[in-house]
UniProtKB/TrEMBL annotation:
It comes from Actinomadura hallensis. One of its GO terms (cellular component) is plasma membrane. Keywords: ATP-binding, Nucleotide-binding, Transport. Residues 6-254 form the ABC transporter domain. PANTHER family: ABC TRANSPORTER ATP-BINDING PROTEIN (PTHR45772:SF1), CONSERVED COMPONENT OF ABC TRANSPORTER FOR NATURAL AMINO ACIDS-RELATED (PTHR45772). It comes from the Bacteria. This is Amino acid/amide ABC transporter ATP-binding protein 1 (HAAT family). InterPro entries: AAA+_ATPase (IPR003593), ABC_AA/LPS_Transport (IPR051120), ABC_transporter-like_ATP-bd (IPR003439), P-loop_NTPase (IPR027417). The keyword Transport applies. GO terms for molecular function: ATP binding; ATP hydrolysis activity.
Length: 256
C-alpha cells in the first residue's frame, strides 16, 4: 500500500439546498492514477474546486502530504504542489506555446519583478533555467516543434496537451486533471492516455482525474471513486468498478 498523499474526509458542501458533496471520503496514495467518475451533476467539479481552494466546504478535511489545506488560498495550494488542468485551455490565443508555459513556470520562480530589478544576476539565471525546463516539458509532450507557435489556432487535441504541459511546468506532486480527453478523437485520446501514464510513472506525478470517457478511465487508472448525487457510491479497482451493480445502475449502464 502506497503512502497517503491526499486524504479527503467527510467533505460536505451545499448550494441553495442542493448537496453537491455529501460526506465524501477517500485517500489518494502517492503515485496513484486515481479517477473520479459519475453522472452529470454528481459533484466531481465541486470536489476539484474544494481541493484547489476555489470552494470552501462546510465541513470535512482535505489533507495534502499530512497538512490540512482547508482555508488555504488557491495560490498557496498550488505552491504546496497541487496543479490543475482545465477542460479548455485558458490563455490568450495570441500567446505562443513557449510564453504560455513560461507564464506557468514563473509562478515557480523565487524572483518577483522587484527582485528581478535588484538582483538581476539570480533573476537572469532563473529565466534561463525556466526556459530550459519549459523546453524539456514541451519536448516530453511532443510539443517541442510548436514552442514558437501561437496557441489559439492549434487543433483542440494539441491545445489539451499544451494545457497538460502548462500544469507540469509547475512541477506538481499532485495533478488534478479535469476531463483531459474531452472532445478528442480516438487517436488523440489514445495518445493522451499514453502520455498521462508516462508522466505518472516516469515523473512520479500522482494524478486525480475526472473523465467521462470510460474506456480511457478504466485503461489508465489504478483506483476509481464513483460519485452520485454528491455521495460516494463505490471506491475500488477499475476491474471491480465495472462489475459493481450500484455503479452500473447509477452511471455505467449508460456510459459504457
Ligand atoms: N457554483 C454553484 N452554484 C450553484 N450550484 C452549483 C454550483 N456548482 C455546482 N453546483 C451544483 O452542484 C451539483 C454538483 O455539480 P458539479 O458541477 O460538481 O457536478 P459534476 O459531477 O462536475 O457534473 P458534470 O459531469 O456535468 O461536470 C449540481 O447539482 C450543480 O448544479
Amino acid at each position: 500500500m502506497s503512502t497517503a498523499l491526499l486524504e479527503i474526509e467527510d467533505l460536505t458542501l451545499s448550494f441553495a439546498g442542493v448537496r453537491a458533496l455529501d460526506g465524501v471520503s477517500f485517500t489518494v496514495g502517492e503515485g496513484d492514477l486515481f479517477a473520479v467518475i459519475g453522472p452529470n451533476g454528481a459533484g466531481k467539479s465541486t470536489l476539484f474546486n474544494c481541493i484547489s481552494g476555489i470552494y470552501r466546504p462546510e465541513s470535512g478535511s482535505i489533507k495534502f502530504a499530512g497538512r490540512e489545506l482547508l482555508g488555504s488560498a488557491p495560490h498557496r495550494i498550488a505552491q504546496a504542489g497541487i496543479a490543475r488542468t482545465f477542460q479548455n485551455v485558458d490563455v490568450f490565443p495570441a500567446m505562443t506555446v513557449r510564453e504560455c508555459l513560461l507564464l506557468a513556470r514563473h509562478r515557480h520562480l523565487r524572483s518577483g519583478p522587484l527582485a528581478a530589478m535588484i538582483r538581476w544576476g539570480r533573476s537572469a539565471r532563473e529565466e534561463r533555467a525556466a526556459l530550459r525546463h519549459v523546453t524539456e516539458v514541451a519536448e516530453r509532450l511532443g510539443l517541442g516543434h510548436l514552442l514558437g507557435r501561437p496557441v489559439g489556432p492549434l487543433p483542440h487535441g494539441v491545445q489539451k496537451r499544451v494545457e497538460l504541459a502548462r500544469s507540469l511546468c509547475m512541477e506538481p506532486r499532485l495533478l488534478l486533471l479535469d476531463e483531459p480527453v474531452a472532445g478528442m478523437n480516438h487517436e488523440e485520446t489514445a495518445e493522451m492516455a499514453a502520455t498521462l501514464r508516462e508522466v505518472n510513472s516516469d515523473l512520479g506525478v500522482t494524478m486525480l482525474l475526472v473523465e467521462h470517457d470510460m474506456s480511457m478511465v478504466m485503461g489508465i487508472s489504478n483506483r476509481v471513486c464513483v460519485l452520485d448525487f454528491g455521495r460516494r457510491i463505490a471506491l475500488d479497482s477499475p476491474a471491480n468498478i465495472v462489475r459493481d451493480e450500484a455503479v452500473i445502475n447509477a452511471y455505467l449502464g449508460g456510459a459504457l
